[in-house]
Amino acid sequence: GDSVTQMEGPVTLSEEAFLTINCTYTATGYPSLFWYVQYPGEGLQLLLKATKADDKGSNKGFEATYRKETTSFHLEKGSVQVSDSAVYFCALKSGAGGTSYGKLTFGQGTILTVHP
Amino acid sequence: GAVVSQHPSWVICKSGTSVKIECRSLDFQATTMFWYRQFPKQSLMLMATSNEGSKATYEQGVEKDKFLINHASLTLSTLTVTSAHPEDSSFYICSPWDSYTFGSGTRLTVV
What we know:
The structure holds two protein chains of two kinds.
Chain A (H helix, E strand, L loop, with lengths): L2 E4 L4 E4 L4 E3 L1 E4 L5 E7 L5 E7 L5 E4 L2 E4 L9 E3 L8 E8 L10 E3 L3 E6 L1
Parallel strand pairs in A: 2-12
Antiparallel strand pairs in A: 1-4, 3-9, 5-6, 5-10, 7-8, 8-9, 10-11, 10-12
Chain B lengths: L3 E4 L2 E4 L5 E7 L6 E7 L5 E8 L2 E5 L8 E7 L2 E6 L8 E7 L9 E5 L1
Parallel strand pairs in B: 2-10
Antiparallel strand pairs in B: 1-3, 3-8, 4-5, 4-9, 5-6, 7-8, 9-10
């Protein structure tokens, strides 16, 4: 079945440091890929997405590129801020032809803490 | 993306009571709704899929008699946790099929 493997955390950085959170996936069909962010006590917010190979999703300084050859969708940000402290989830939505069409499969989440 | 309203945001209930969670689509018709559960410090796991006008389907290990799902209209899906126990304390969140948006989630605490 579909699966998402995410870099284990927690990740602790100083403000303005470079961030990378690795994400790799296994899926049948042609999945779409997502990064979600969850702030303490809140629900999920979509951070960015990519629907086909070589697409780059970007939002609020975060970027991720859909790499089909390496089945990866790593999240990056050039300069993190304290306000970026949250839990980040990589997710996959199976495309047509996949066994779990329409459902989201999540990675285990990575806790990011940014210190001033 | 689709706009989904979920209520309540949080609820505390006593063991043995039932709790209903509503997920309402505001700007579209959702024939299918996914329900996820997130235990503290864990990821989200799909619990069940509700289908308008037909029975819900449940993931392996989820008790269908305990988690009752009703999808009576194209804009409303409900999840009822029956005879709740402390181990049911979790964050429940819905998402329409073919969407990447979520309801705001419901934090259930059973005491």
